[in-house]
Design a protein that fits this description.
The radius of gyration is 19 Å and the shape is globular. The chain has two domains: about 45-85 and about 165-264, Rossmann fold (3-Layer(aba) Sandwich), CATH 3.40.50; about 95-160. A six-stranded mixed β-sheet has the order 6-7-8-4-9-10, with helices on both faces. It has a four-stranded mixed β-sheet with strand order 1-5-2-3, with helices on one face. α5 (about 175-195) links the parallel β7 and β8. The two termini are about 20 Å apart. The longest helix has 22 residues, at about 240-260. The protein has helices at about 65-70, 100-115, 115-130, 145-160, 175-195, 205-210, 240-260, and strands at about 5-10, 20-30, 35-45, 50-55, 80-85, 90, 165-170, 195-200, 215, 225-230. The chain is of the alpha/beta class. GO terms for molecular function: ATP binding; ATP hydrolysis activity. Keywords: ATP-binding, Nucleotide-binding, Transport. This is Nodulation ABC transporter NodI. It holds the Pfam family ABC_tran.
């Protein structure tokens, strides 16, 4: 592995930017019982403005680690990461504060962004309406279903007005019907807002259902094994024949990566 200067740049969004995120030869190691453990190795990815990209791979391949690096929560061991402004991050768990209402959870993100107090409630209500939770401003977290909580978490992330939304398996804990509904919602919101999305999942059909491009990471250390451009028109359904066909192809590649990993 070649060591490179590590830099993280947060640039202001403008019409001249060529990418929402650029990862150049990124590697990441962690200290382990037997020494340094290489988790990501020489990963280079560009996410274009307004592009929806899914990162796919087996458990432990470094998908979430990569997302944390792009979010700025950790730094790469080697390589560079550049983003068009500060990314917004949405986790698998909603991470809402239970003592705050749905609206106040969103207002907290607005406060951190510097939105004046008199404007926060109106903006929070607009965001709740965007995720189709109009009228839920005063509801406590325990009054919301799992799907509704993830909608609030999405509204909070969108409240950061980032050009890049990072999503770490946000629908993995939901039942199939709720997940399918939220697939429709995130597709609609992505289309309406023009935001760039980098979405981590281990669900192949979810990756194909949502993305314009699917990137498969190899088993640890995570390297780019292959990528696919998804030319299936939106709106798509999980059960659509073209989605299922491409998902089968990607699944075979994923199984091959898992088999190769099991041989070591």
């Amino acid at each position: 592995m070649t060591t490179m200067a590590t830099t993280t740049t947060l640039a202001k969004a403008d019409e001249s930017v060529e990418y929402a995120a650029r990862l150049e030869h990124v590697s990441k190691s962690f200290a382990g019982p037997g020494g340094q453990q290489l988790v990501l190795d020489d990963v280079s990815i560009d996410v274009a403005p307004g592009e929806f990209v899914t990162l796919l791979g087996a458990s432990g391949c470094g998908k979430s680690t990569l997302l944390n690096l792009v979010a700025g929560l950790d730094g790469p061991t080697a390589g560079s990461i550049t983003t068009d402004g500060r990314p917004a991050l949405m986790f698998q768990e909603h991470a809402l504060f239970p003592w705050l209402t749905a609206g106040k959870n969103i207002e907290l993100a607005l406060k951190l962004r510097g939105v004046p107090k008199p404007e926060r409630r109106g903006k929070a209500e607009e965001l709740l309406e965007l995720v189709r939770l109009k009228g839920a401003y005063g509801k406590r977290v325990h009054e919301l279903s799992g799907g509704m909580r993830q909608r609030v978490a999405l509204a909070r992330a969108l409240g950061q007005e980032s050009n890049l939304l990072l999503m770490d398996e946000p629908f993995a804990a939901l039942d199939a019907i709720t997940r399918d509904v939220l697939h429709d919602e995130i597709t609609r919101i992505w289309t309406e807002t023009g935001i760039s999305v980098l979405f981590v999942t281990h669900n192949v059909r979810e990756a194909v259902r949502l993305a314009q491009r699917v990137i498969l990471l190899s088993s640890r250390p995570g390297r780019i094994a292959r990528e696919w451009t998804v030319d299936i028109p939106q709106p798509r359904r999980i059960e659509d024949a073209p989605v299922a066909e491409l998902a089968r192809e990607i699944t075979e590649e994923l199984r091959g990566e898992i088999r190769r990993h099991g041989q070591h």
